[in-house]
Amino acid sequence: MSGPKSDKKPKRGDARRIALVQAAARLFWVQGYSGTSLADVAKAADVPIGNLYYYYKSKAELALAVASLFVSQTEALVENVCDETENSRSRLKVLVARLRETQGERIAYGCPIAAACRDLRETAPEASEKAAQSFSILIGFIGQELGRTGLRPSLAMAKARSVIADWQGGIALAHALNQPTILVETYGRMERALAK
Predict the structure, then answer these.
(1) pLDDT for res 9
(2) Per-residue DSSP letters for 115-139?
(3) In which domain, by residue range, is 175 found?
(4) H helices of 32-58, where?
(5) Is residue 124 a part of any domain in this protein?
(6) What is the rounded CA–CA span in Å between residue 47 and residue 16?
């Protein structure tokens, strides 16, 4: 999925583009899409507002770049999990461990991918659909690995959807009630469900 690593620094334009997308991803997550202006993004990325328009002609175009970032991060997560082990049960355990590492910010702000899917649906539908691909990637990966353990494909996919639904529900409830224990319990259920 990824090419050879390069020691070269990104070009200034590439660095600015990356900074803008990362700043937008963070601000859309924390402040919400409608609560974030392009000026906010430019300031957070330390890029003059006039230069922002050179890279992104509209807020919707920037939102699509953010959604694409989520997809590439999810693909990288799956690739890294696969690089760690070839055993399906071990891969699923590693995946849950990696998701657990993001627990703190998800309790504070909810899930950035779910927020993007929700917040972008009306004003940037293409970006909303793109962000949702992250969930499809996770469900597909879990279903594939469960299938490799001998579970029938339809049951593997149903279980994969159930696990991701539990994860998202756990994030939403832990965030709403500001109770980390809820998400800790969710990860435990995910591990048990994927170990069977």
Answers:
(1) 59
(2) HHHHHHTTT-HHHHHHHHHHHHHHH
(3) 64-195
(4) 38-45, 49-55
(5) yes
(6) 7
* pTM, to two decimals: 0.90
> Which among 118, 168, 171 is positioned nearest to 138, based on CA atoms?
168
Residues 156 and 85 in one domain: yes
Q: Is residue 1 part of a domain?
A: no
Phi and psi for 152 in degrees, rounded to 5?
A: -55, 140
Q: Buried b / exposed e across 126-145, counting CB within 10 Å, b at 16+?
A: ebbebbbbbbebbbebbbbb
In a domain, 178, yes or no: yes
pLDDT 10s digit of each residue in the chain, 196 long? 333 344 555 566 689 999 999 999 999 999 999 999 999 999 999 999 999 999 999 999 999 999 999 999 999 999 999 999 999 999 999 999 999 998 989 999 999 999 999 999 999 999 999 999 999 999 999 999 999 999 999 999 999 999 999 999 999 999 999 999 999 999 999 999 999 8
**Position 15, amino acid:** A
Structure tokens at 163: 């696990």
Dihedral angle of Cα 161, 165, 166, 167, to the nearest 10 degrees: 100
Whether residue 148 is found in the same domain as residue 76: yes
CA–CA separation, 194 and 196 (whole Å): 6
Q: Which long-range contacts (CB under 8 A, 24 or more apart) does 162-169 make?
A: 162/193, 163/190, 163/193, 163/194, 164/135, 164/138, 164/139, 166/190, 166/193, 167/99, 168/111, 168/114
